[in-house]
Amino acid sequence: MKLTKIHLLNFRNYSNIHVKFGDGMNIFVGDNAQGKTNILEAIVILALTKSHRVGTSPNIVQFHKKKCQIQGVVKKDKIISKLEVEIMDDIKKLKINQTEIRRVVDYISNLVVIVFTPDDLEIVKGSPNIRRNLLNIQLSQISKSYLNTYNEYNKILKTRNEYLKILFQNSIADKAYLDIITEKLVEKAVFIYQKRKEYIDLINEKIDNYYCAISGACGLKIKYVPNVDFSSYDSESIKEKLLFVFQKSYMKELNYGMTMYGPHRDDFAFYFNDNDLKYFGSQGQQKLAILSFMLAEIPIFSQICKTAPVLLLDDIFSELDIKKRNRLLKLIQEEDIQSFLTTTDLKNISKKYLDKAYIYEVKNGSIEGR
Prior knowledge:
Helix content is about 45%, strand content about 25%.
């Protein structure tokens, strides 16, 4: 899968630009606040319909403009698709080959991306919600059934929470209806648990190899931490345990007015030699762990999607010494995928990688290829 070109209209600091991309490594170089990250963000929105940056929607459309457009051309094998996302007053219009797509589930996966940004340190250090969001985004790109089931789960979860409040306020309300809702919730939860566990197991098969290759040290793994203790992840075991937990916790959930257990409370953690990196890892170790996680996803995406994803790495070289920088670039080049990197300078990057890269200079909302 390759993103061959992009057109941005009234997006961030880009008024109207067209950029063609190379099939391999694309490096955007320039001072801070010139628009390098905005290019990566545009690619993410083109792929996922939403930004990976938090709290940025009001600034996406240029000041005094009513709407912005992101258009891109994606080549997958011999198939060429024209994607478009138009944003106006937080309302999005999605198009594939000029045909409007009304459901996000029918749009996502036409451009599959893996993205790393400096803010991703929060994947290790931040709240469980950040890690769940990462799992949901990645699984949604490679499995439409996951995205559909996850959306259905959230609708049922909302209904269940609302009915718990009704039961708390009205003692004559019918608890049997709650049991029906719970059965439906559990049905969706089983699938989500299994897919997340399966995905983390796949990551664990590969993540330490990447960490070793970049850092020279080995011992990284991911631990899946649901808030229900399962002895097995087969369907019947998960179902029985969840129904037991909900029955046992009825009064607790009634008092809180919310569903206390389920995949919406999941977590996972990064461990190096049995030490949780959230508490015992340096910032450099945490960054390498997340990078290794992203790199481990490349062969998984490639196998499931039958095509390589596009890799986006924002400000990737900060806090990496020269050896680690070039080891990382070697790994990216060996994966033989299209990648987009941003940096403030090209110093300490081996010439053998620069010679094969497509380099763009970014300055004040303009992009010029070298």
